[in-house]
Amino acid sequence: MDNSEKTSTEPLVKSPANSKPKLIIIITLIALVIVVLIGWKLFTLNHEDNPLENRLELPQKVSIEPSYEVAASNIEETNTILIEPEITISESSKDKHTIISEPQLSELLLPSLDESDEWIQQKISELTWRNELITLIITEDMIRRFVVFTDNFSQGLLAYDHSPFVKPTKRLTVDETQTVDSRKSVWAWDIKSSKRFDVYVDLLRSVNSSTLVNSYFESKPLIDEAYRELGYEGDFTEVLQDAINRVLDMELPHYPMNLTRTSVMYKFNNPELETLTDSDKLLLRIGKENLLIIKSMLIEIDEKLIAKSSQ
Fold first, then answer.
1. Quick check: is 71 in a domain?
2. DSSP letters spanning 41-90
3. Domain region containing 195
């Protein structure tokens, strides 16, 4: 075999010894690329925010305004002090202020006595669920009427011209079928005659006693003003309680309440009844059933008046 055959049959694969220098060169190039990338990253980090903040997701600082619904414990933790607003009235100088107390504030919210009728009507509509019976109340000069009538009633008098209520549509009647003494024109009391006061009693029964007493004290500055107009200086609540006690102390007689008439007006035939005060005779005409209902209501109202006055 000649040398040419040996030459043609030599393998074309590179030996390991020949590939080793190229592998070293490739590794070196990769290392240089890594070094360059690390250097560039470090250079850019010096010009950016700390990436740890984004990675840790630190909470943002939020400014929260104080609220009246914040619990007391939270207020202490945040060192926030909540102060309720004070209402002040500026006097001659801006440096001088008068803090209004709670009673003074309620007085400022009240209308004047001369312009209080509409305000009182609104109050009355909130007191009763029988709005159709409100028509029984006279809506002119309401507070003055209440004060004058109550003051007179507490003394046993009836100030008809200052009555807070309209007059009953029906008049006092007698039972002419039961003539006691035909010679003296004496008739038996007609029990049905008391029915004309039923609607007034129904109005009283429809009123919530607690709401009524609260409304009374809310209106008391105006009531006191009307009471002072009469020349008094005392507490009108005492006058009101005297009027209530007059009703509570009233007892209906156990004997017949016969009536007589010597003129156009009926009178009690019994002198003992006829000598009663006008306010007591009105209570007689109201009738037993109505008077018992009124008494039960006034007992409840009187108790709440006493409790409220002692606060």
1. no
2. HHHHHTTS--HHHHHHTPPPP------TTS-HHHHHHHT--------EEE
3. 115-309
Mean pLDDT of 202-228: 96
21: amino acid identity, one letter = P
Rg over alpha carbons for the chain, rounded to the nearest Å, is: 48
Closest Cα to residue 139, out of 124, 159, 154? Answer: 124
| CA–CA dist 311, 256 (Å, integer) | 45
**Could you say which of 7, 26, 56 is where a domain stops?**
56
pTM of the model: 0.64
- CA-to-CA separations, 267 to 152, 154, 176, 195, 253, in angstroms, rounded: 21, 22, 15, 19, 16
Give the position of tokens 């200052």. 162
Domain count, the chain: 2
From the list 163, 200, 139, the residue with the least C-alpha distance to 278 is 163
What span, in angstroms and rounded, lies between the C-alpha atoms of 241 and 227?
15
List all residues 6 or more positions away from 109 whose beta carbon is below 8 Å from its beta carbon: none
Sign of CA dihedral 123, 126, 130, 131: positive
CB within 8 A of 87, min separation 6: which ones? 99, 100, 105
pLDDT tens per residue, range 246-260: 999 999 898 888 898
* Residue 134 shares a structural domain with residue 31: no
Q: Residues with Cβ < 8 Å from 82, sequence gap 6 or more?
A: 66, 68, 70, 75
Mean pLDDT of 90-113: 52
Q: Which uninterrupted H or E stretch holds 203?
A: helix 198-205
